């Protein structure tokens, strides 16, 4: 492909190729402090379906080693988002070394707090704000559980902030590096936040899972314990490769829900959300 | 050397990769994944002194292929249980057959759908039993459904509603409309029982099915893997009685070409009369190795030619015209 770059996020390494320069330039800028792997685990392709669509109403198709048919393309202005989606797609479809949980995670003192929930539950926002308060960010999208050790490995890609969360996090982290504002994406406005230097420096360090949280945004503050059975079922739904890992996946997940306490928390605003997490952790 | 050829050379002689640059390793795995051969490649490389990042890829691909194999065998067992009460012969084909019998092509091989062969006059019973056991039709279009039932060598594909796995139930190995008509009864009669109620094709028939599948059906997409199956079968000494059997099924030309291509691409030891390469053979090799360093398909014209040929092989011209017209009106366009 005409333009290409390489980068490693936690234990996963990528080569990203593109028919256009802009998405690669954006990656090179925002991921400048990340390691550049020699041989990647996955390849991502950002390509035009027809040669003339490189120039004429350019639409970025997302492909790679592993693809889903009929994925909708994005406009070139959202090329950075396409690259991020391409990397997520490789992880979701083909990561087999770790049990992949759709969750954000932060760590303090070697203990990891895992937060999972549907889109809009506030996983990314809580993770970014906890990072602002001195937690080590492990990731805002995926947590990787090693079936051999039970440890959580981080995947601290760019934090994807959506809609109102953008202003909230900018206020909390005025000196942080942000990507360009991407208005009108399929998920609304998106702006990427570069994880802080500590998160990048420690991205290869795993942590012991200490707390599982199921946050919900927009409800009165509340908290209840989640029994292992319920946590198990919710996490099978939050995992893209649970079925593929078969027995290894079952063992890793049952071990996780048996050994780590789980809580469901509702929060009306980010301040009380942060307070709830820090009180429990 | 193009990335497609480089994969073929490494599969043939893995130590060639020992002085690869990081870029060559990267491209090797990209092409292998695109050709569904990452597990095969990984098994070939394993045991050599590999760079750490490459060893990681190898370990992951081997583990992944092991899981694929397990799931495929489980799927075969599920079909066996559904069909056992009918007491009809059920022959595993392709990947699942190799895995179930522990044959050499199965090492690291990816296995997609479950392919089985049953007697044509009992295929309705097989279908009913599978539907009762949780498989469902996936071709909602009545034309597509009729197309399979009238003209194809298999039922419309069925998917199991809980396990999301596809089964192709064949009654022969080439479409009924194709010019070549293999002897399906002979395939069943010569099949070898595995001891659990399932069978696999006989040694020569396995090779001939692979050759027919590669060269008399389809557009050679994924052909490097199908040819690797053929290479492995030749290497395990499957060629005795092959010529007579090929003649019986009308597959002598396909058999000879498969042998020539396998010899050229993978260095397979084949009888001397199958070692030269014609002009047309070179076109096949061009199509088989059409991948760039990202694993993307190249040589669009060559591929288009083989795509057109696949339809030509499949049915007589008038029937083809009618079929393409019907599909066109339904909004179907070939993917480039």
UniProtKB/TrEMBL annotation, chain A:
Keyword field: Kinase, Transferase
Gene3D superfamilies on file: P-loop containing nucleotide triphosphate hydrolases
Superkingdom, natural source: Bacteria
InterPro entries, per database record: HprK-rel_A, P-loop_NTPase
Keyword Transferase: yes
Alphabetized GO MF terms: kinase activity
Protein's recorded name: HprK-related kinase A
UniProtKB/TrEMBL annotation, chain B:
InterPro entries: NTP_transf_5
Highest taxon, organism lineage: Bacteria
Name by which UniProt lists this protein: Nucleotidyltransferase family protein
Taxonomic source organism: Sphingomonas leidyi
Species classification: Bacteria, Pseudomonadati, Pseudomonadota, Alphaproteobacteria, Sphingomonadales
């Amino acid at each position: 492909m005409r333009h290409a770059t390489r980068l490693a996020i936690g234990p996963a390494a990528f080569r990203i190729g593109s028919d256009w320069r802009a998405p690669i330039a954006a990656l090179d800028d925002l991921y400048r402090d990340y390691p550049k792997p020699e041989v990647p685990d996955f390849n991502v392709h950002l390509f035009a379906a027809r040669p003339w669509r490189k120039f004429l109403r350019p639409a970025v198709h997302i492909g790679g080693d592993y693809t889903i048919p009929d994925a909708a393309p994005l406009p070139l202005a959202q090329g950075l988002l396409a690259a991020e989606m391409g990397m997520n797609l490789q992880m979701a479809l083909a990561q087999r070394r770790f049990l992949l949980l759709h969750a954000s995670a932060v760590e303090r003192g070697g203990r990891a707090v895992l937060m999972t929930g549907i889109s809009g539950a506030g996983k990314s926002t809580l993770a970014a704000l906890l990072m602002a308060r001195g937690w080590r960010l492990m990731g805002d999208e995926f947590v990787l559980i090693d079936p051999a050790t039970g440890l959580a490995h981080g995947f601290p890609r760019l934090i994807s902030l959506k809609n109102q969360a953008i202003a909230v996090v900018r206020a909390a982290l005025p000196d942080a590096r942000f990507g360009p504002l991407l208005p009108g994406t399929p998920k609304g406005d998106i702006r990427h936040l570069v994880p802080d230097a500590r998160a990048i420096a420690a991205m290869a360090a795993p942590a012991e899972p200490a707390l599982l949280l199921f946050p919900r945004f927009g409800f009165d503050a509340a908290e209840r314990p989640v029994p292992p059975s319920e946590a198990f079922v919710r996490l099978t739904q939050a995992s893209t490769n649970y079925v593929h890992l078969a027995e290894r996946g079952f063992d890793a997940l049952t071990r996780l829900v048996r050994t780590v306490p789980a809580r469901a928390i509702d929060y009306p605003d980010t301040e009380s959300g942060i307070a709830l997490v820090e009180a429990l952790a | 050397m193009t990335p497609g050829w480089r994969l073929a050379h490494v599969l043939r002689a893995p130590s060639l990769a020992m002085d690869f640059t990081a870029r060559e390793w990267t491209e090797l795995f990209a092409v292998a994944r695109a050709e569904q051969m990452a597990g095969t490649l990984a098994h070939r490389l394993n045991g050599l002194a590999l760079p750490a990042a490459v060893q990681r890829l190898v370990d992951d691909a081997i583990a992944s292929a092991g899981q694929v194999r397990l799931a495929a065998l489980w799927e075969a067992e599920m079909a066996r249980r559904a069909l056992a009460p009918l007491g009809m012969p059920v022959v595993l084909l392709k990947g699942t057959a190799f895995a179930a019998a522990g044959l050499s092509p199965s090492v690291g091989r990816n296995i997609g759908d479950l392919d089985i062969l049953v007697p044509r006059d009992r295929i309705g019973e097989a279908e009913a039993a599978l539907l009762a056991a949780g498989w469902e039709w996936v071709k909602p279009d009545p034309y597509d459904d009729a197309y399979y039932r009238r003209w194809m060598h298999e039922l419309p594909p069925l998917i199991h509603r809980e396990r999301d796995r596809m089964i192709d139930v064949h009654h022969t190995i080439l479409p009924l409309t194709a010019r070549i008509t293999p002897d399906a009864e002979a395939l069943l009669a010569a099949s070898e029982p595995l001891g659990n109620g399932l069978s696999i094709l006989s040694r020569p028939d396995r090779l001939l099915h692979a050759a027919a599948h590669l060269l008399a059906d389809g557009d050679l997409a994924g052909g490097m893997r199908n040819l690797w199956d053929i290479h492995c079968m030749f290497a395990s000494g499957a060629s005795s009685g092959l010529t007579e059997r090929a003649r019986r099924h009308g597959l002598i030309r396909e058999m000879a070409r498969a042998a020539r291509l396998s010899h050229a691409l993978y260095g397979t030891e084949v009888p001397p009369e199958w070692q030269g390469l014609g002009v047309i053979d070179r076109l096949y090799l061009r199509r088989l190795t059409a991948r760039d360093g990202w694993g993307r398909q190249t040589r669009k014209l060559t591929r288009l030619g083989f795509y057109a040929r696949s339809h030509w092989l499949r049915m007589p011209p008038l029937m083809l015209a009618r079929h393409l017209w019907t599909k066109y009106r339904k909004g179907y366009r070939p993917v480039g």
